[in-house]
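A quick aside before the break. I want you to see a complete sequence-to-structure record at least once, exactly as it would be stored in a machine-readable document. Don't worry about memorizing anything.
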Amino acid sequence: MINLVDILDASANAHPDKVAMRFKDRSFTFSDVKDRVDRLAGALADRGTERRGHVAVITPNTSACIEIVFACARLGAVCEQYNTRLSALSIVGLLRRSDARIVFLSCAMYDVLKDHLESVGRPLTLILLDGVAGDEAARARAVAIADGVDAFDYENVLAEAEPLEAAADVSASDAVIMLYTSGTTGMPRGVLLSHEALLARIEIDTKEMWFTPDDVSLSVLPLFHVTCVTAFVTVANGAELVIADSHKPEDVAAMIRTYGVTRVGLVPFLLRALADYVERNDIGIDTLRLIVYGGEPISLDLLTRCQKLLKCDFLQGYGMTETASAITMLTPEHHKNPRLLSTVGTVVPGMELKVVDRTGKTCPPEIAGEVLVKTRTLMSGYYRDPERTDDVIRDGWYCTGDIGILDEEGFLTLVDRKNNLVITGGENVYPLEVGRCIEAMGDDIVDVVVIGIPDAVWGETLAAVVVRKEGSDVTEADIVAHCAHRLGGYKKPRKVLFVDSLVRNASGKVPKDYLEKIKEQLM
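That is the input. The structure line, written in tokens, reads:
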């Protein structure tokens, strides 16, 4: 296989009448999905989309997200997937840098963007995604909402198109999707992932995550993030993909029970919400075989609690958009050893990983340094940013920017992001270590993030932003004393801000702009 769409063609040939996707009240067999993809490819070709051309997608989760990727793959084009949680100005700014002239978007996102689209500076063809068979009100709105704009309804586009079944003659190294980084360290960057990188990812995850044709995979996390690769692995294995349009715990639990979901990917704050709901309502979700988690650190207390409540296997993946997801895995077998639960596991088979010091020399075991990885799943580069691409890819090694420690057995423990380093009184401190220490205080701590702020005496100092359990009497003094005792006086936060909740993005990370506002409050 060379083209990503080959996996759909193979599964449609092997399992034509089997349910491939579900979204809301609709289900699609593999034959249905292939037909819709072929029709969409024909429609895009008629509208001028060619090999290496770009198409933009701006929508929350929907089955169309998967269809558009495969249709682009059939044409050899690139599907750009935009984070709908970015501001309208940010999205339009990114769109302005792109060459995409066809934009798929939900009506809700059109409402958000409509006053800014003219600033893109080129004509756009909008294809609105909310119209569905049997919902004439939504269909009419999808056609009429963009008065004066070249807009079409997605379902009408498919119905009127001639199918295009032949895949373009692509190179395996051609990009097929572009995902944006989360933007926690600045303006999001477009990450180009090739056919060969995604096919390698599918091969790895099929084996290392034990996918089978009888799996039912629930996609809760946004499909505009790198977790979308699980959808492709599901299709490649002839398994069933259920696409969630809600991440509320009651909805997630209902979908698991209704469709017999066997595996789901969650970030820790969603995992906590699901565990709380299951415990509070004393319900069983017995079909689950595997929960894959990652995206942010998880407390040992939460993980242990979830293992007891949800009674299935757990697998942690540590990776990034640039590597098409996981580069290390903490497997279900690893989860049986309490000593390993603070690690992110060992390098994925077929990849190479090392920890290096500032000179690039490999660190001995138990010494912290930057994590580097060499993998077939690596991005082709950042979109229109060769300088930054060269900064992070050196001699085939991707420099993650994460600080980690490898032990003698090859288990990796993450310390923090390289650029999160706080130097206080001449001492190096990584906020993630301090945050984990605060989380270890137990159930009283619901959520926490630790940041560095300027200090007239120490240059920088630490501040903790903490969400306490309702009714908790944990004080600032308690937190400071706990960290001083466990980590040492120079690692204790000198300020603690209690808040009702922390803002987190779709991948579970606390956005940089939100942290900047917090810093202003603390200074």
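Two observations worth writing down. The chain has 16 helices and 27 strands. The two ends are 56 Å apart (CA to CA). We'll return to this after the break.
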